[in-house]
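Weekly structure sync, notes
Attendees: PL (lead), two postdocs, one rotation student
Agenda item 3: pending single-chain targets
PL asked that the sequence for the first pending target be pasted directly into the notes so everyone works from the same version. It is reproduced below exactly as submitted, 386 residues in total.
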Amino acid sequence: MTRSISILFYLLIAAVTCGMAEQVLPFQPGESVWNHGRRTRKSFQNRLVVTGIFCILFAVMALRFDIGNDYRQYTQTAHEAYVGGYVVTEVGFNWLVRLLYGIAGGEYYELLFAVFAFVTILFFLKAFARQSVSFPQTFFLFMTLGLYFQTFNTVRYYLALSIALYSMKYVLEKDYLKFVFWICIAALFHKSVLLVLPVYWIAAFGWKRWQIVTGLAVSTACFLGRGLVLKLALVLYPSYKNTIYLEGGGSLSSTLRTLAVLVLYAWFIYVHWGVSAGEMLKEQGWYRELRFYGQLNLLALVTGTFFSFLPVVTRISYYFGVSQLLMIPLILQNIKEQRIRRKVTVVIFAVCILYFMFFLLQAHQDGVKLLPYQSWLFETERYTYK
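Predicted structure, written out during the meeting:
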């Protein structure tokens, strides 16, 4: 496909799947999914629609060829893992490569990308379905913020990110055994996800003002002493030594988006409700969940600014900022006045659409390389290694 046709193709995928997501009906508190041992009509319809969305997203992701800034690198890394060469990837990735290539009888990296696509999309959709107050709104954000298309890059990381989002529910439910289990599974493919074990747990508690001020002061000190902090980071993650990733630099668009979400959060609490955070916690049972997401976004903002010198800081920030997919619909649902809710919803959705258009116009650049879209169904070229 040409670049222009590929943009239209991505727009079509987003429009069709978002339209399908609108057909997913919410369940009221206490409403049963089962009736006399069989799924209710609503439950069956929801599962059918979500399955259709999954099939579309999976097909686009699994059938791609040479899409993403590290597609070719992954084919070579998989080759090295298969033949027993030196690789810096985690054991889960290496074992999976050997298993799939062994079953397939050759280095069919298309199968490897398909498996990553399947698991990544599965966990994202499962998280949306069970954790969001509005599946359609969360899915709309997932598509228009470009997160789905970014999963074409760094497939190990986005698999870990999907599981991290899925695990948030266990933190809020204080089911820490399951939380640790799923994060450890994710760490088999990208060890950076281990960072969320202490951070998600800490974010589940209410932070006092002095704690926030202290945290900001420590972050400022780390930024001023970034040379030493960077050396310590490379001890933990030596694979980044002598690479372009040491140039650091967070994502400006992600940082601005996180700042906007925090402004929305502050408006919602102090202007719309007109109470303090402590009073909200006493009056509204859902506020603990919202506070968790809000504090994670504060961490995303801090890592994207004070720690922008760290290698691939966006990977750290995304573990926190991905909560926006659940946080924004929760805010919208609990805006008291319907008129204000509609206005805020329209503004947010309009901004997301503009953001998506800007994202697609930049998606051909180096470091992203999502355009033009190609599929191995129509390509004769393959990457082969001896």
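Discussion points:
- The mean pLDDT is 88.
- The radius of gyration is 21 Å.
Action: rotation student to compare against the earlier draft before next sync.
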